[in-house]
Amino acid sequence: MSTVVAALGERVLIDGFALAGVRLYSAETDDEVRRVWATLLGQTGLVIVTPHAARALGAAITDPHAPLTAVLPSVLPSVLLKELPS
Fold first, then answer.
1. What DSSP letter does each residue of 9-32 carry, written as one string?
2. Residue 69: which H helix or E strand, with range?
3. Are 14 and 8 in contact (CB under 8 A)?
4. Count of CB atoms within 10 A of residue 63's CB?
5. d(CA 60, CA 39)
6. Rounded to whole angstroms, what are the CA distances from 30 to 2, 42, 74, 84?
7. pLDDT at 77 over 90
8. What does pTM read for this prediction?
């Protein structure tokens, strides 16, 4: 099994993963997501995907031959959205 970790999806959501050595694959449209995903099969051990990328891939991320896939949360916890008292 590969030890390569990749992040796939909108650049603004995956950029920070580069600090941990994750390979970034920016994809803004459904077609781009599917095209990049096809190149990752067989050479990636873990793919971190944005919610948009997960929707574009659909059932492909649950295929038994697909790499382990983690989907980023689609919303911030509500406590983070509230204004903190000063």
1. E-HHHHGGGGGGTPEEEE--SHHH
2. strand 68-71
3. yes
4. 11
5. 13
6. 25, 21, 17, 36
7. no
8. 0.84
Structure tokens at 17: 């993963």
Confidence class for position 81, pLDDT limits 50, 70, 90? low
Phi, psi for residue 67 in degrees, rounded to 5 = -65, 160
CA 29 – CA 36 distance, rounded (Å): 11
Measured between alpha carbons, how far is 6 from 23 in angstroms, rounded to an integer? 5
Q: Which two tokens stand for residue 4?
A: 């390569």
Across the chain, how many H-helices and E-strands are there?
A: 4, 4
Beta bridge mates, 42 = none
